[in-house]
Specification:
Layout: H1 7-41, H2 43-54, H3 58-75, H4 78-93, H5 100-115, H6 122-131, H7 135-158, H8 161-170
Helix pairs in contact: 1-4, 2-4, 3-4, 3-5, 4-5, 5-7
Protein backbone atom coordinates (compact mmCIF):
# COMPACT_ATOMS: atom_id res chain seq x y z
CA UNK A 1 0.00 0.00 0.00
CA UNK A 2 3.02 2.23 -0.20
CA UNK A 3 2.29 5.53 -1.99
CA UNK A 4 -1.26 4.55 -2.94
CA UNK A 5 -2.89 7.49 -1.16
CA UNK A 6 -2.73 10.51 -3.43
CA UNK A 7 -3.37 14.11 -2.42
CA UNK A 8 -6.68 14.02 -4.31
CA UNK A 9 -7.78 10.85 -2.49
CA UNK A 10 -6.71 12.36 0.85
CA UNK A 11 -8.89 15.41 0.21
CA UNK A 12 -11.81 13.16 -0.77
CA UNK A 13 -11.44 11.17 2.47
CA UNK A 14 -11.23 14.37 4.54
CA UNK A 15 -14.42 15.69 2.95
CA UNK A 16 -16.24 12.44 3.72
CA UNK A 17 -14.99 12.48 7.31
CA UNK A 18 -15.95 16.11 7.84
CA UNK A 19 -19.47 15.40 6.56
CA UNK A 20 -19.79 12.52 9.02
CA UNK A 21 -18.42 14.59 11.93
CA UNK A 22 -20.72 17.49 11.02
CA UNK A 23 -23.74 15.20 11.08
CA UNK A 24 -22.69 13.81 14.42
CA UNK A 25 -22.28 17.28 15.86
CA UNK A 26 -25.73 18.22 14.61
CA UNK A 27 -27.17 15.44 16.78
CA UNK A 28 -24.93 16.24 19.74
CA UNK A 29 -25.53 20.00 19.90
CA UNK A 30 -29.25 19.84 20.68
CA UNK A 31 -28.69 16.98 23.11
CA UNK A 32 -26.02 18.94 24.97
CA UNK A 33 -28.25 22.02 25.03
CA UNK A 34 -31.13 19.98 26.43
CA UNK A 35 -28.81 18.55 29.08
CA UNK A 36 -27.79 22.07 30.09
CA UNK A 37 -31.42 23.16 30.27
CA UNK A 38 -32.19 20.16 32.49
CA UNK A 39 -29.28 21.06 34.77
CA UNK A 40 -30.33 24.71 34.93
CA UNK A 41 -33.94 23.83 35.75
CA UNK A 42 -32.90 21.37 38.46
CA UNK A 43 -34.36 18.33 36.75
CA UNK A 44 -31.38 16.22 37.83
CA UNK A 45 -31.84 17.12 41.50
CA UNK A 46 -35.58 16.50 41.35
CA UNK A 47 -35.24 13.08 39.74
CA UNK A 48 -32.44 12.06 42.10
CA UNK A 49 -34.41 13.12 45.16
CA UNK A 50 -37.49 11.29 43.86
CA UNK A 51 -35.56 8.03 43.56
CA UNK A 52 -33.67 8.36 46.86
CA UNK A 53 -36.77 9.42 48.83
CA UNK A 54 -39.11 6.78 47.42
CA UNK A 55 -37.00 3.70 46.62
CA UNK A 56 -34.76 1.99 49.16
CA UNK A 57 -33.74 -1.02 47.10
CA UNK A 58 -30.63 -0.76 44.95
CA UNK A 59 -31.90 -3.63 42.78
CA UNK A 60 -35.19 -1.87 42.03
CA UNK A 61 -33.41 1.37 41.11
CA UNK A 62 -31.00 -0.44 38.80
CA UNK A 63 -33.88 -2.28 37.10
CA UNK A 64 -35.75 1.02 36.65
CA UNK A 65 -32.65 2.58 35.11
CA UNK A 66 -32.38 -0.44 32.78
CA UNK A 67 -35.99 0.13 31.73
CA UNK A 68 -35.46 3.86 31.17
CA UNK A 69 -32.32 3.27 29.09
CA UNK A 70 -33.94 0.44 27.17
CA UNK A 71 -37.10 2.36 26.27
CA UNK A 72 -35.25 5.59 25.43
CA UNK A 73 -32.62 3.70 23.44
CA UNK A 74 -35.23 2.02 21.26
CA UNK A 75 -36.34 5.39 19.90
CA UNK A 76 -33.33 7.73 20.06
CA UNK A 77 -29.74 7.26 18.92
CA UNK A 78 -27.18 6.16 21.48
CA UNK A 79 -24.97 9.26 21.56
CA UNK A 80 -27.72 11.79 22.37
CA UNK A 81 -29.07 9.43 25.03
CA UNK A 82 -25.65 9.30 26.68
CA UNK A 83 -25.39 13.09 26.62
CA UNK A 84 -28.94 13.71 27.88
CA UNK A 85 -29.54 10.84 30.30
CA UNK A 86 -25.96 10.21 31.45
CA UNK A 87 -25.71 13.01 34.02
CA UNK A 88 -29.26 12.49 35.25
CA UNK A 89 -29.08 8.74 35.73
CA UNK A 90 -25.55 8.80 37.14
CA UNK A 91 -26.74 11.13 39.89
CA UNK A 92 -29.65 8.76 40.53
CA UNK A 93 -27.38 5.71 40.88
CA UNK A 94 -24.52 7.34 42.76
CA UNK A 95 -26.27 7.27 46.19
CA UNK A 96 -26.77 3.53 45.70
CA UNK A 97 -23.04 2.88 45.38
CA UNK A 98 -22.67 2.77 41.59
CA UNK A 99 -19.40 4.42 40.52
CA UNK A 100 -18.78 6.23 37.23
CA UNK A 101 -16.99 3.35 35.48
CA UNK A 102 -19.71 0.86 36.36
CA UNK A 103 -22.42 3.31 35.30
CA UNK A 104 -20.71 4.01 31.97
CA UNK A 105 -20.53 0.31 31.15
CA UNK A 106 -24.14 -0.23 32.24
CA UNK A 107 -25.29 2.65 30.06
CA UNK A 108 -23.41 1.51 26.96
CA UNK A 109 -24.55 -2.11 27.32
CA UNK A 110 -28.21 -1.18 27.91
CA UNK A 111 -28.27 1.23 24.98
CA UNK A 112 -26.52 -1.33 22.76
CA UNK A 113 -29.28 -3.82 23.46
CA UNK A 114 -31.97 -1.20 22.86
CA UNK A 115 -30.39 -0.03 19.59
CA UNK A 116 -30.93 -3.51 18.12
CA UNK A 117 -34.47 -3.90 19.41
CA UNK A 118 -37.68 -3.06 17.54
CA UNK A 119 -39.64 -0.87 16.89
CA UNK A 120 -36.78 1.06 15.28
CA UNK A 121 -33.93 -1.50 15.48
CA UNK A 122 -31.55 0.87 13.75
CA UNK A 123 -28.61 -1.52 13.86
CA UNK A 124 -30.67 -4.23 12.17
CA UNK A 125 -31.59 -1.91 9.31
CA UNK A 126 -27.96 -0.86 8.91
CA UNK A 127 -26.82 -4.50 8.94
CA UNK A 128 -29.45 -5.45 6.42
CA UNK A 129 -28.66 -2.61 4.04
CA UNK A 130 -24.88 -3.13 4.28
CA UNK A 131 -24.97 -6.88 3.71
CA UNK A 132 -28.01 -7.20 1.48
CA UNK A 133 -29.33 -9.91 3.81
CA UNK A 134 -33.02 -9.79 4.68
CA UNK A 135 -33.89 -8.60 8.17
CA UNK A 136 -35.53 -11.89 9.17
CA UNK A 137 -32.31 -13.73 8.30
CA UNK A 138 -30.29 -11.43 10.60
CA UNK A 139 -32.54 -11.55 13.67
CA UNK A 140 -32.23 -15.25 14.54
CA UNK A 141 -28.40 -15.40 14.46
CA UNK A 142 -28.30 -12.18 16.49
CA UNK A 143 -30.22 -13.64 19.46
CA UNK A 144 -27.21 -15.32 21.16
CA UNK A 145 -25.30 -12.04 21.00
CA UNK A 146 -28.21 -10.16 22.55
CA UNK A 147 -28.38 -12.75 25.32
CA UNK A 148 -24.65 -12.29 25.86
CA UNK A 149 -25.10 -8.52 26.11
CA UNK A 150 -27.93 -8.97 28.60
CA UNK A 151 -25.85 -11.36 30.74
CA UNK A 152 -22.95 -8.89 30.66
CA UNK A 153 -25.31 -6.04 31.61
CA UNK A 154 -26.64 -7.88 34.66
CA UNK A 155 -23.14 -9.08 35.63
CA UNK A 156 -21.72 -5.55 35.53
CA UNK A 157 -24.71 -4.12 37.40
CA UNK A 158 -24.95 -6.68 40.18
CA UNK A 159 -21.34 -7.97 40.42
CA UNK A 160 -19.29 -4.79 40.02
CA UNK A 161 -16.05 -6.54 40.99
CA UNK A 162 -16.05 -8.11 37.53
CA UNK A 163 -15.17 -4.71 36.04
CA UNK A 164 -11.97 -4.41 38.01
CA UNK A 165 -10.95 -8.07 37.76
CA UNK A 166 -8.43 -7.51 34.92
CA UNK A 167 -6.71 -4.76 36.94
CA UNK A 168 -6.57 -7.03 39.97
CA UNK A 169 -5.14 -9.91 37.96
CA UNK A 170 -2.66 -8.00 35.80
CA UNK A 171 -2.03 -4.99 38.04
CA UNK A 172 -2.49 -1.40 37.05
CA UNK A 173 -4.95 1.29 37.85
CA UNK A 174 -4.49 4.32 40.03
Amino acid sequence: YYRELSLKETFKQLMGTSTFVGGTLLTLAPAAALGQIFAYMGVTRSITSFFTNNIDSKVVVILLVFAILFIAGMFVQTTPMIVILGPILFNVLQPYGIDSVQFGIIMVLALSIAFCTPPLATNLFVSSSMTGIAMDKIVIPMIPFMIGLAVALFAVAFVPQIIYLPMQIFGGGA
